Amino acid sequence: MSWGGLALSQMARHVLREAVEVAEAWAVIVVRLYSSSPSTNTPKRRQGQKDPRQVGVAELGEETRSKMCEVREETARGPWKHALASLEAIVRQQQGEIQRLRDRVGLLEAEAGHMPASNKRAKLAPPPADAFSPLGDEAVACCASYLGACELVQLGRTCRRFGAGRDGGRPSLVDGAARQMFHETATAHEKECLPLYEGEETHVKVLKELEGLRKPLELDILFAGVSHFEGSKATIKCSSSTDYRFDSGSAISSHIMRSGRHYAKFKVKQMSLSRELRHLSFVRDEINIGIIRPLLKKNDRMDSEFHPVCWDDFRTRYDSDVDFTIRASHWGDGNVNCCTYYGVDGSCYWSSGEGEGNLFDREWPRNEGMGVDPCTMGLLLDLNAGTLTVYKNSRRLGVMMRGLTGEYCWMVTPLMKCMISVERAVPPE
C-alpha cells in the first residue's frame, strides 16, 4: 500500500477508534443510570450536584443536542423509562455511526490499492483535542459520579482525556470525580478511617477503600489447615486430621485498617472432639484471634503454611510464601506486628515477627478465657489511641494491648477443629 493510502487508512482508523471510545462511554453512563433509576433504588442526588442530563448540552453536536433536549422534555412529562429510552437511542445512533465509519475504512483501503506510490511520507494533522468528545469536563465529572471505583478505572482507560492528568497539575477527570464522590458521600467516621496518603495514591484508590469499608468483612486470605465454609468467605473452618494439632492454619482479612476505630465480632463454634480430649480446656479453646500487618500471599497454593502465633520470627520463617514489605512504609514506629487473644486462658500474644515479642502475657487487666461454646469474641482496634480492647459475649474485658501504630488486618489462627465467622459491628456501650 502507498504512503498516501496508508495515511488515509490510519486517519480513518483514528476516527473510528475515537468514535468507539465515545460510544463506550455513553454505554457505561446509560447502564449506570438505568441501574440507579427510581425503579431500581435510585440513590439520592447529593446536595448541589447538577443533573447529568442538564450539563454540557451546549457542547454537543446538533443531532445529539436535539436528542438530549428530547430527554429533558420526556423526563418532565413521564417517568425515567422514557428518558432512558432516549439515551439508549443516542447510543444506537453512535453505534450506527461506528458502522458507517467501518464501511468508510473499507472503501479507503480499497481505493488506496489503486493510488500511485509517493516517495514522501504523508503527515497526519492531529485532530482537535475535543473533536470527538461530545461532553464537557463538568458534564463528564457529573456523569462519572454515578460510577463505582472499578467503573471509574475503566472509564479512565477509554481515552486519554478521561484518565490522564490535566494542565497545571490538576488530577484527571475520573480522579476528580472520585474525590468529589468521597467527600460528599463519606461519613465523618469513614473519612477518619481513610486518610489520603498524599502523593502515594489516587482518590479512585481511596474510593475503592471506602467501598471495601462498607462491605461485610471476609477472611479471604487462607493458608493450609483452613477453608471457607459453604462458600462464604466470612466463615472459615479448621479441620485438622487429628484432635489436637499445634500447626493448624491461619485466615486473614485483606481489608486494611489504616486509621480510626474498627470493631469486629468473631463467632466461634467448636467441632466434635474425641471422648478422651473433650474435658481438656486447653484443647477446647485452642483459638487465637487478633490483628496482623497487611501481607501478600506469594502463591495460590492451599498447602502453604503460615502460623505467626507459633513463631516469633514468622517474618523470616515464612519469607518464601508471604510478603510483608508491600505496606511496611505505613507501619509507624511500633514493633507490634502481630497481636492475638488466646482462647484457653485469655492471655495476649504479640510479636515483631523478627524474634522480639511476648508469648502468652497473662498480665493485662480482666483477662479470661473463652470458656463457653459457642462464644462471641469482640475486638475493638482504636488506631487513634493505639489500643486493642477485648469483648466477650458483648461484655468488655479490658484493653489487651497499647502502643499500636500503623496499619493492621484481622486474623484468626485456630489450633483445633472449629468454625469461626467474622462480621463488622458497632462496639457495645
Class inferred from helices and paired strands: alpha+beta
For the CA atoms, what is the radius of gyration? 29 Å
Helix content: 25-40%
Q: What would you call the shape?
A: elongated
Biggest sheet details: 7 strands, antiparallel
The end-to-end span amounts to: 78 Å
Q: What's the number of domains?
A: 2
Mean pLDDT: 76
Q: What's the SSE pattern?
A: HHHHHHHHHEEEEEHEEHEEEEEEEEE
Question: β content, as a range?
Answer: 15-25%
Number of strands: 16
The oligomeric state of the chains shown is single chain
Low-pLDDT segments: 1-5, 38-46, 49-60, 241-246
**Helix count from the secondary structure assignment:** 11
Q: How is the largest sheet built, in terms of strand order?
A: 1-4-15-6-9-10-11
Organism: Thalassiosira oceanica
Protein name: B30.2/SPRY domain-containing protein
Coiled coil: 84-111
Keywords: Coiled coil
Structural notes for this entry:
This protein is α+β, with helices and mostly antiparallel strands and 429 residues long. The protein folds into 2 domains: 3-213, no CATH class; 217-424, Sandwich (Jelly Rolls), CATH 2.60.120. 33% of the residues lie in helices and 19% in strands. A hairpin with a 4-residue loop joins strand 12 and strand 13. The longest helix has 33 residues, at 3-35. The N and C termini lie far apart (78 Å). 31% of the residues are buried.
